[in-house]
Amino acid sequence: MRIDSIMPLSLSAFAQHEAVQRITPADLFATPPRLTDSGRFVGRVDSGGLGSPRYFVGEYRDGAMPSALVLEYGAASAGDGRATRVWSLADRRGTTPDYRLIHDDSSRGYVTV
Fold first, then answer.
1. Is residue 54 classed as helix, strand or coil in its secondary structure?
2. pTM to 2 decimals?
3. Which H or E element spans position 13?
């Protein structure tokens, strides 16, 4: 399933789609974890900033990798929910698929000199 076919959904509806895997900050690792379960895989997420990339354990859905990942993080503020990041499956070649950041509603970016 292509991510652009489900991205027009609201973020909360998008996060519940069967092609999307929800993850938490605790699910992100600095180094690739070892796996013994054939129903799972190690993927790489890149946020394009400091501390990237990170690795996570993904779950196959009907033999396919999730089209996207959704991560909610930080404390909820008054009137707003938690911050949300969304990564889209960019490259599934090789042993570690790459997911690229496509949405981060708490970031305004940063400048380096």
1. strand
2. 0.74
3. helix 11-15
How does pLDDT run across 12-34, given as a tens digit for each residue? 666 677 788 999 889 999 999 99
Nearest CA among 99, 7, 5, 91 for reference residue 47: 99
Using one digit for the tens of pLDDT, what is the confidence trace for 34-92? 998 989 999 999 876 666 789 999 999 888 899 999 988 877 665 666 778 889 999 87
Judge whether 111 lies within some domain: no
Asked if residue 34 belongs to a domain, the reply is yes
CB 45 within 8 A of CB 96: no
Chain-centroid distance, C-alpha 104: 11
Quickly count helices (H) and strands (E) in the chain: 1, 6
Closest CA to 20 of 105, 94, 99: 99
Number of domains forming the structure of the chain:
1
Residue 75 included in any domain: yes
Residue 109 lies in a domain: no
